[in-house]
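Lesson 9: reading folded outputs for more than one chain in a single document. The general rule is that every protein is listed as its sequence immediately followed by its structure tokens, and records are never interleaved. Here is the first one.
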Amino acid sequence: MNSADRLSDSGVNCGSHRRRRHARRRRQDRPGTALALRVAVLGLPNINWQAIGREVAAMGTAALSMPLRWLVADLEFDPTARHPIPVVFVHGLLGDRTNFLPMRTYLTSVGIRSFATFSYGPRIDHHRLADELGRAIDGIRDATGARQVDLVGHSLGGLVARYVTESSRQRAVRRLVTLGAPYYTDAYPEQELAIFGDQDFLVRPPDRDGIRVIPDAGHLALLYHPAVLRAVAAYLLRPRVIAPRLRSAREAA
């Protein structure tokens, strides 16, 4: 190759390099490119925006439902319903009886029409709350003639309901559903269906078998998520009777 050819090739390579460099500069100068780079650096593309949207919607639903408290009776009992066993709802810390309005509506649509509510003020002494819930369960059984009740508890309410189910009143509880309830032990009631959200950063799902983890659901969204409503209804309507025996996660393994 002569010197003229080498100069020609060098000129072509230099020109190609300059064009690529100018193209990169043009891309960097485009509106939004700098913002996109910052978003990538912060890791924002990894955020589950669907879960955030559900959680925001759940907070709005909870706030807007509070004026409807008068619609939620302390006890509604229909002995002719498909599911005559009273379902007792226990809300979480800073929660309200109206938190379960959508779930009550859904359960009513599938034949569950006997409900009761256990409400309490902002407290975290779950042992005393469990004693109060236990006495409330005794009153519900006396008022309705039901031998057992089903419990559905959210967050701290689930912990309180679980504590009752593990106490001397365990035979009064037929089924237990907990939604995002914390665990402090590896022992759990066999009649419990524990449901968690995979985007719940307040109560992370424990590393154990036998739980239900709902995708794209945060802590409050567990109260309204369609998959949760279906799972709760299916579990409460399941005909098989579960013996109230306690076992540990190690025994289940």
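And here is the second record, again sequence then tokens.
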Amino acid sequence: MIHWGAAGLSLTAAGVALFLLSPPNWSEFYVQRYMAGIEHHKTMGLLALVLAAAWPIARTVRRPRPGAEWERALAKVVHLGLFASLITLPVSGYLSSTLYGNGLTLSGLTVPPLLPENRALAAALHLLHKLGGYAFLALASLHTVAALTHVLRDAAAGRSAS
């Protein structure tokens, strides 16, 4: 449940961000679309951060899948990267927004900026947030390919994928 919740929220937040940041032009219509949609992006990021807090607990009760040593090592690296993304992306997004002087509005509740404005640091964190988002999508893609490979391998061997 934590896995699929975090995956759904994170991938949807990434999709919303890609959609919002690729308009054909920045006319008033697209600026308004961005302003409306970015709050959904932030809400999903915050919820994903909450789920990330529960992820280590969920990982302790799950048995590792069989596979070659290199597969298990790569899986650990990818899972660590995904977990790090679930923490660093919401935090860097929040800090970037705050340092730009923007508050955080979630479902009508507004939290004012908690840090003094610092546009240079905000820009650096925004770049980290953006590049981290692309890295997250790459890791999620690799994770999906690996999961599908296991499902197909299990099906070919006549095992149920649990």
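What the second record shows: The chain has a mean pLDDT of 87.
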